[in-house]
Design brief:
The protein is α/β, with parallel strands linked by helices and 196 residues long. The chain has two domains: 98 residues, Rossmann fold; 87 residues, no CATH class. Helices cover 47% and strands 17% of the residues. It has nine helices and seven strands, in the order βαβαβαβααβααβαβα. The chain has a four-stranded parallel sheet with strand order 2-1-3-4, with helices on both faces. Strands 5-6-7 form a three-stranded parallel sheet. Helix 2 packs parallel to helix 3 and helix 6 runs parallel beside helix 8. The radius of gyration is 17 Å and the shape is globular. It starts with a strand and ends with a helix.
């Protein structure tokens, strides 16, 4: 059975890794992760790809959480009878909703990073939010935050330096939790498991 996964660009590399280590033949179709800055565009982009892929694949899964679509992605999934990852955002996908709830309760005002955001922070946050041009906006955007929490999937010295750089750019203390990608793998296997 032919399988396609429509994935947030921030998750697509992880989906490839999971497929490789489980010897799965998947076609992974990434969507620009910068849509997280304009989440109203996520559901239409997913729908467009579903229509493009349906003639060529027996089964399509969606490697997105809700990601700020406020249910619009679920409407698309229901319309085309496809399933997505559980959770409100990719933090839930990596760390579980329960763990994230506990972290947000422990420190209200937690700004969360994944490996993708650590790698792309200067582009996807600083540039996209205009902070590279207007650094004075830092306090407007981040005044309510108390810390950065990096949910590390693959902690390396290079990524650790990038996480420290991100924290210094917005002047917040950094905490690191190693979460790996096991929870994403479990969910992905459920999404495609019924077709194996």
């Amino acid at each position: 059975m032919s399988l396609a996964v429509i994935a947030c660009g921030a998750l697509s590399a992880h989906v490839h890794e999971i497929a490789d280590r489980n010897h799965l033949e998947l076609h992974v179709e990434p969507i620009n992760p910068l849509l997280h800055n304009r989440p109203e565009g996520i559901a239409p982009a997913v729908e467009e790809l579903i229509l493009e892929l349906q003639p060529n694949y027996d089964h399509i899964a969606i490697a997105y959480a809700d990601c700020g679509t406020y249910g619009a992605l679920d409407v698309v999934c229901e319309k085309y009878q496809v399933s997505r990852l559980a959770g409100d955002h990719c933090y839930d996908v990596f760390a579980t909703a329960e763990k994230m709830k506990a972290e947000f309760e422990k420190v209200p005002g937690t700004y969360v990073l994944t490996d993708y955001l650590v790698k792309s922070f200067r582009r996807s946050v600083m540039n996209e939010m205009g902070l590279d041009r207007y650094p004075e906006l830092r306090d407007d955007y981040f005044h309510a935050y108390k810390r950065i929490l990096w949910l590390a999937q693959h902690q390396t010295p290079e990524l650790e330096e990038a996480a420290k750089d991100a924290a210094s750019l917005i002047d917040l203390p950094l905490e690191i939790i190693n979460v790996g990608d096991k929870h994403l793998e479990e969910q992905l296997m459920v999404l495609i498991g019924s077709t194996k």
